[in-house]
Amino acid sequence: MKAILEGAGSGLEHIVKVTVYLTNMARDFGIFNEVYAEFFRDVGVLPARTCIGVAALPMGAFVEVECVAELAPGD
């Protein structure tokens, strides 16, 4: 996510909203919160987030993350 945003001339600080899909909320929600906080530690503010429990994800994944971000000002 960071590399994609930087490639577009933006960055983690420009994320507006994150949507997370977890296949096992009971097992993964707590650890995901820890990883999420660490990932955005240097940004200073955690982006708004929705976390949704799903039955399955493609290719057997346990987690999927999508985000909406703005381009850096002036772009």
CATH class label = Alpha Beta
Give the strand order of the largest sheet, numbering strands 1, 2, ... along the chain: 2-1-3
Instruction: Give the helix proportion (percent range).
Output: 25-40%
Structural class: alpha+beta
- CATH-derived architecture: 2-Layer Sandwich
GO molecular function, one term: deaminase activity
Family: Belongs to the RutC family.
Organism: Boletus edulis BED1
InterPro entries: RutC-like_sf, YjgF/YER057c/UK114
List the helices and strands and how they pair.
Layout: H1 2-7, E1 15-22, H2 25-39, E2 48-53, E3 63-69
Outline the structure in words.
The chain has a single domain, classed as RutC-like (60s Ribosomal Protein L30, Chain: A, 2-Layer Sandwich). Helix content is 28%, strand content 28%. The protein is built from two helices and three strands, in the order αβαββ. A three-stranded mixed sheet has the order 2-1-3. Helix 2 (25-39) links the parallel strand 1 (15-22) and strand 2. The chain is globular and about 40 Å long. It starts with a helix and ends in a 6-residue tail after the last strand. The model has no long low-confidence stretch (mean pLDDT 95).
